[in-house]
Amino acid sequence: MKKTPIRHDFDKAFFKRFYDDVTTSVISEDDVFKRACFVLSYLSHLQVPVETVLDAGCGTGLWLRALRKIDRSIGYLGIDPSAYLCEKFGWFRSSVADFRSRKKFDLVVCQDVMQYMPVDEVERSFKAIADVCRGALYFDVPTSDDIKSGLLDMKKTDRSIHVRSAAWYRRRLEKHFENAGGGVFVSPRARAVLLALERGR
Q1: Strand ranges (DSSP E) for the chain?
Q2: 135 touches 162 (CB < 8 A)
Q3: I need a surface site. Which of 29, 133, 164, 195 has the fewest CB within 10 A?
């Protein structure tokens, strides 16, 4: 079987297919809103306050729209490497791996981004996120485990990606964060109250 090349083009056509067209969209505004409600509620339970959010690979801004519905006082910065999106929405143009900031963020969101990165860029990205995160990371990415189990609809999912196991990502995440379950990873800077059974082990 011929291997599908990894995608590097994030232009208007890509976002029209995977975000704007409801018949081929990989994610919906309602789905992101539910995730945001969960993450903010869970972090409140863990006693990790969220006043600032960095959306690392923000795409079309679904997390911004969700956060505005939940709490408009939350400060938001969206970064994305796509020239098309940055021109359209005004995001700060940067890859995750190359992002640097003196400002620290209470929550970093990195959803459906690292499957497009080679190994060295993934590892640099986790390090860059850890450097600017003082609270928690919400991380989500398609994994080989989800594909094998049939949880992902591969008719809609972009196949031009690196497919890796959940364990592969966890090994790299645990260098910088504590797994709190539900895709939430807590920074050692945070004074989170994380009980033993809440740890994602």
Answers
A1: 52-56, 75-80, 92-93, 105-111, 133-140, 178-181, 184-186
A2: no
A3: 195
166: tokens are 């959940």
Question: What is the per-residue pLDDT across 31-62, written as a single tens digit (0 to 9) for each?
Answer: 999 999 999 999 999 999 999 999 999 999 99
Cα separation, 118 vs 34, in Å, equals 30
- What's the DSSP call for residue 143? B
Q: Which residues pair with 185 in a beta bridge?
A: 137, 179
Question: H or E segment at 35?
Answer: helix 29-45
Mean pLDDT of 126-144: 97
Gap between the Cα atoms of 120 and 118, Å rounded: 6
- Which tokens belong to 96? 């995750």
Helix pair 166-173, 119-132: axis angle to 10 deg: 40
Name residues whose C-beta falls within 8 Å of residue 23's C-beta, 6 or more positions apart in sequence.
none
CA distance 13 to 200: 37
Fold for the domain defined by 21-198:
Rossmann fold (3.40.50)
Q: Where are the domains of the chain?
A: 21-198
Rg (CA), the chain: 16
